Amino acid sequence: MESNVGDKLVGFRNGDESAFRYYYDMYYNALCLFGVRMLRDEEVVEDITQDVFVNLWKARETIESVLHLKMYLYQSMRHRCLNYIRVKKLEEDYRVEYALLKSEEGFGDAVVEEEVHRVVMEEIDSLPQEQRRVILLHLEGKNNIEIAEVMEVSVNTVKTHKARARQQLKTKLQDLFVITFILGL
Amino acid sequence: MDKDLGISIEEKVLRIKAYLDETLTPEEEVEFRQWLDASVSNRILLDRIRDERSLVDKIRFAERCDKEKGWCNIQKKIKKRPTIFIRFMRYVAVLIAIVVIGIAVYQVGDNPKEGDSEFLAREQPVPTKGGYKAYLELATGERWMLDSISKVTTRVEGAVIKAEDKGTVIIDEQRTDSIIEKMEYNRLVIPRGGEYKIVLADGSQVWINSQSVLEFPARFVGKERRVKLTGEAYFDVSKDVEKPFVVEVGDKEVQVLGTSFNVNDYDGKFMTTLVTGKVQVSVNDKNYILTPSMQVRIEGNDILVGKVDVREFTAWKDGLFVFKKQKLREVMDILSRWYDVDVFYQNLELQNLHFTGTIQRHSEISGVLKFLEKTDIVKFTLNGKTLIVSK
Predict the structure, then answer these.
(1) Distance from CA of B20 to the nearest CA of A (A)
(2) C-beta atoms of A173 and B145 within 8 A
(3) pLDDT digits over A14-28, tens only?
(4) Contacts of B7 in chain A (CB under 8 A)
(5) SS (H, E, C) B250-266
(6) Cβ contact A105–B41 (<8 Å)
(7) Rounded CA gap, B265 and A162, in Å?
(8) Which residue in B260, B280, B262, B283 sits closest to B271, CA to CA?
(9) Looking at residues B282-311, what average pLDDT do you find?
(10) Are B6 and A67 a contacting pair, CB within 8 Å?
């Protein structure tokens, strides 16, 4: 899998837009999530994330490895967010976040957390659409009856989807606590 | 150095993932536990990763993120210089437009200049007018972005919080057997360019203006009903003689039993304007009692109490800007919050000009600026989200 990611990198460096899109899909949410740890304004975070990608594209020829690309993204995000706080004079509001992201250790741990969650979310995302939809509706706080209504299926079908999703995630994520929580099982 | 950091991050990610998947070998597991015990921050990191709540929040956030729109924005920024074909097509489009306008002029005798400028104006990004926008942040850490079409229903202890009607959050108290002792505050955050309304647990209604935050409990426990505000809001408080309603604004407090009033606290300027009923404003142990159409204004150490035209201060909630001999600076402050633009003055003296007039709050910014330009004493130039004021 890693080598596949590497192949894409060659394409990316040569200006292949589909390779760019591939990395965009991979990191867009993770970078936004990394950003909202610092800035609470989601719209601002999305804007910053987009700018980070624009600059990544401009600097594509200097990217040496997949790891380099990943670090480039998180580091740019970090500096841009810190910068935003400084320019808008929000240091008081974001004291804790600011101090944390300024320290190398705080930054490193934030990236580790985001990266593990990114992989887990990718796995949930890879579920068949119906199962995924059931889980997401469940997350919105809907019960089986309400989910059945929205999806125009029977309550039993909802239950089956939940069971299948649980099965599939269990084999993938083992003890991942999430499953039981998400499915309320 | 960055490379080392990257590698150590990568190793930690793999290790933690393997630990969660239970694929570590016994030796690796021993090593992992040693790493875990080596520092408190490692333990905290693992706990954060295992925190299902935070993961659920993230999935919700990812659902809200408009990835396609983000991609379009990036494409727009990358492809500033269009291809030859597109540039050619633009000429064609302009030619067609000229012909069409020409025909229109010939047939109707319309003014060609207007059509022309409208055609060119489309190229520039224009600030959008304000609308229903808010972030609902619960004490539990859950967070939603709300707009005019969002539908959210969530349960907290003793209440159901709903955002289903256009631009309104409603809190419904629910019967509970358990006694709720501590009150946790939730937040409704309105960004620049936004407004939202909330119906609190006691039925009181609050209209919240741009760039404001209202902190409120899901239900009111204790002897009073207390909320906290920064920015501006209009309150229509349900009557409850037993339980006074208190709005906390920094170090000031507005206390009422049941009444409607507007509180405004932007940029260190505090104002409370009473519409009906009676309120008491407390600041530094001093109390000011207001009767209808009275206003208290506090700026630094200056405190002013007097009668005002209430409409001027509350019209915003009914969709109007009402200016009465208002300084341009104040007018522009209001517009910058609603249209989310940054205002620059070519000449600072311009800030002291006065304006009078009523404008629809839901008109486009261009319409509002045209209206202000009619006075012939100022001119506006809009450049993206930057508004320049000149003579």
Answers:
(1) 6
(2) no
(3) 888 889 999 999 999
(4) 67
(5) CCEEEEECCCEEEEEEE
(6) yes
(7) 49
(8) B262
(9) 88
(10) yes
Whether residue B73 and residue A71 make contact (CB cut-off 8 A), yes or no, is: no
Tell me the chain A residues in contact with residue B64 when contact means C-beta distances shorter than 8 Å: 42
- Is residue A31 scored above 50 in pLDDT? yes
Task: Provide CATH code, domain A126-183.
Answer: 1.10.10.10
Average pLDDT over residues B193-198: 91
Point out the residue among A46, A124, A175 whose CB comes nearest to the CB of B20. A175
Reported ipTM: 0.79
Q: Between chain A and chain B, how many beta carbons pairs sit less than 8 Å apart?
A: 127
- C-alpha distances out from residue A20 to A8, A32, A46, Å: 8, 17, 18
For chain A, where do the domains classified as CATH 1.10.1740.10 start and end?
Answer: 2-93
Which part of chain A is CATH 1.10.10.10?
126-183
If you count them, how many residues does chain A have? Answer: 185
Q: Does the pTM exceed 0.90?
A: no
Among residues A29, A44, A20, the alpha carbon closest in space to that of B65 is found at A29
Residue B106 confidence (pLDDT) above 50: no
Q: Tell me: domain A2-93, CATH 1.10.1660.10, correct? A: no
Range in A89-98, B154-163, B292-301 with the lowest mean pLDDT: A89-98
